[in-house]
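Q: I'm teaching a short session on how sequence maps to structure, and I want students to see two examples side by side rather than one. Could you give me a first protein with its sequence written out and its structure tokens following it? Keep the formatting plain so it prints cleanly on a handout.
A: Of course. Example one:
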Amino acid sequence: MDKTLLPIRLVFVLLCAAAGWLVSYTVFAGEGSPLVGLAIGLLLGLLVVLVDILLKGFSLRGLSAVTFGIAVGALIAHLVGNSPLLDEGDAAMLYMVRVGLFVVCPYLATVIALRGKDEFNLVIPYVRFVPQEVDVPLVVVDTSVLIDGRISRVCESGFLTSTLIIPRFVLNELRVIADSSDVNKQSRGRRGLEVLNELRKLKHLEIRVSESEVTKREDVDAKLVFLAQSLRAKLLTTDYNLAKMAEFHGVTWLNLNSLAKSLRTELMLGEHLEVEMMKPGKEEGQAVGYLDDGSMVVVNGGRTLIGRRVRAEIMSILPTAGGKMIFARHIPDLEGVGTEKPFPTTKPAA
């Protein structure tokens, strides 16, 4: 129980008990014991607190939807009850029909409003308290982006300064993945939670949690697209199918994979580069290394230098589905062959 709400609830229960004792003592003096009124007031206070606890997960949007549903249902019941359809007939029967309308119509309208409380966001638009003529760009974040992990580095660099909207069902899905019995899924989910904590530590970045839920896992993609549409936001994802669905519905999408490809260095034949030799190549004397963007570099004459960072000259570039494969030849230092310094595997002590 919340420590802030606990004293408020205790005071409320005591006030209810005191009110019951006072009513019994003053209004019903001589007709009953004040202790009975005290007990009734105490029970009523406890009942109200219990209802309060049961409504713990009831959001302001849900309350707005309930109010809207009751108002619309009461209006419909009033219009039907006072229509010419109920002008004539047995008075008792007409009374029962009107009572039924005032019970059924608000109930149905309230249920419909609660089921579509995200659509209710269109009736009462998403309000942003910002100065006039200042546009706050919004970006809806997908689960795949948080698991991917690169979003934290992109935001930390300052290239993405938009307000991030993280739906509640994305957080729930991330928690379910982190609690999975599958070791691989568990590690991916925990990495997503770590990335989320890293994003919260960035002072220049604003993060908002949208209280949106989904009943089926299959509806997640559709709800993400709908949320981006209703908020007039962009959708940040690494899921190709979700990106194409967003594009079909006219939602602008951002893909970290596309960003990574656009940032790859354009290399040309004859250029020099530095790369760490990681493992032997297929041909004799070859060694394989990787650039920062993941491109594989095959260096002729680098097998004896595995574990070291060497200079190489690009001889050819082969485009592949995963990026580029670069073939190069080892360039010895001016002082002699094989004088490259070993690539440090651990950080030096401070």
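Q: Perfect. Now a second example for contrast.
A: Example two:
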Amino acid sequence: MVLAGGLGTRLRPYTLLLPKPMLKVGTKPILAHILEWLKAKGITEVIVSTGYLGKKIEEYFGNGGEWGVDVSYAASRLPLGTAGQLKAAEGRIRGRFICLYGDALLDFDLQEAIAFHNRKRAAATMVLMKHSVEMKYGFMKTDKEGRLTEWREKPVISGYINVGCYVMEKSFLRYIPAEQVYGMKETFENAKADGARLYAVKLAGEFIDIGDRRSYKEANDAYMKKIGKVV
């Protein structure tokens, strides 16, 4: 399941006439990169959950034959948030499935994530990757008298982040209310409160989020750099 129905407001004006998954990174749309990656990882049946300007996605990708996958569509009429959009496609899901956001480029061992999920008998498993950020400013510490005790110039903060890829059981969707704007965070909180088996697997790999104009440029720069290395 690829969630591709967002409005892409942070990427305007690029998304005024195109849905975000149709924006090109290099020579092809974001969603084309995603479909090719899924095919390479052994996933050949894909449901694309569409919303805003969804017809453009359907017209471009059709049945997915050009990308070697079987693509079908689940359209929602209104923006419903990540989890709400997933819930709207519930009738198309048969059992265990992979859920991806349609605005990120990923590369990691997907089969390892699936195997981890199966071993844990999880209701949902979130894929995490390590991420580091250099802070813009120095961090200062003082004692109770106000004396300066430490100056950390532009420290690097590291931790594990959610990269927007999940392995889920269909039963997990019961934690999402129907026909409501709903987020994935709230869904996981509902499931946790109910005692559901929730896990996260830490994997090495690549993650490029294309959430705003700056990250879109960075994604294109990274892609072209990668192509240059191949050439």
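Q: What should students look for in example two?
A: Point them to this: The chain has a mean pLDDT of 86. Also worth mentioning: The radius of gyration is 20 Å.
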